[in-house]
Amino acid sequence: IQFVESGGGLVQPGGSLKLSCAASGFTFGTYILSWVRQAPGKDIEWVSTISARGDATAYADSVKGRFTFSRDNTRNTLYLQMNNLQAEDTAMYYCSTSRTGTTRGQGTQVTVSS
User: Fold this and answer.
1) Residue 7 Cα to chain centre, angstroms
2) CA-CA to 45 of 20 to 30 Å: which in 15, 68, 93, 99?
3) Residues 38, 58: contact at Cβ < 8 Å?
4) Rounded Cα gap, residues 62 and 29, in angstroms
5) Would you say 15 and 110 are in contact if contact means Cβ atoms under 8 Å apart?
């Protein structure tokens, strides 16, 4: 299983970013998948999970209403649209096969700062 995350960067508070995650090495369309994040010095934090068909999502309270998780099973790709970003969203973001981030990619850094 391989994940390659991209789309991170530096953004001002209130700004937006869209992360992508290209997946390979498994039957993508049959897996429930997640985004997790890790801020410096902190544990992995679950962000969101999406069903295999993309018709159901769940979000951590901290991102609910601001983040949108989607997937394109024809492209084996996940997306995380992040709006109204805040300083506390600063972290390395990973796509994963689990809510605990056990199997994840190399991550993409999101920094929210003025």
Assistant:
1) 10
2) 15
3) no
4) 27
5) no
